[in-house]
Design goal:
Mean pLDDT: 88
Shape: elongated
Number of strands: 11
Strand content: 35-45%
Structural class: mainly beta
Number of helices: 1
Distance between the termini: 12 Å
């Protein structure tokens, strides 16, 4: 098994935008499902449970350093294209997270938010976007 750090990982969008800033973190995500209580009035000792039917794939948060050219609304790779494609809210993007030594997560998702960090002296300007998978992403193992 090859243990690795996140250094060298990439996040790419590929439907309406080629937005590709200098990421400082690419958010992980969790998968969870409800646990359903099957206990009855006749249950003794401890409650009984079964797993729910559907999984919920959690949201991700990604941090990056601001490049002023990525703020231009005339550029195909701007944040504007992820949030408002041709003036309408973008509904879907192809999102791919690739690990540095191979393997990836890829699927359809959407941007759920954008925030600009505080502006201050002696600090690089940073921003955050959040994304949500529309469904379970395709997992590709390292080859």
């Amino acid at each position: 098994m090859a243990i690795q750090s996140g250094h060298g990982a990439t996040l790419a969008f590929g439907t309406t935008s080629t937005f590709s800033p200098g990421y400082t973190t690419i958010g992980g995500f969790e998968v969870s499902r409800d646990s359903l209580d099957t206990s009855t009035l006749a249950t003794t000792g401890a409650r009984t449970k079964i797993g729910g039917d559907l999984y919920d794939v959690g949201a991700q948060t990604h941090n990056y350093l601001i490049d002023p050219t990525l703020l231009l609304t005339t550029e195909a790779g701007s944040i504007d294209d992820l949030l408002f494609d041709s003036g309408a809210v973008s509904v879907a993007e192809t999102i791919t997270i690739t690990l540095a030594i191979g393997g990836s997560f890829a699927g359809t998702g959407h941007v759920t938010g954008f925030s600009l960090e505080d502006l201050s002296t002696d600090q690089l300007i940073a921003a955050t976007i959040s994304t949500q998978w529309n469904d379970w992403p395709t997992v590709t193992q390292q080859t």
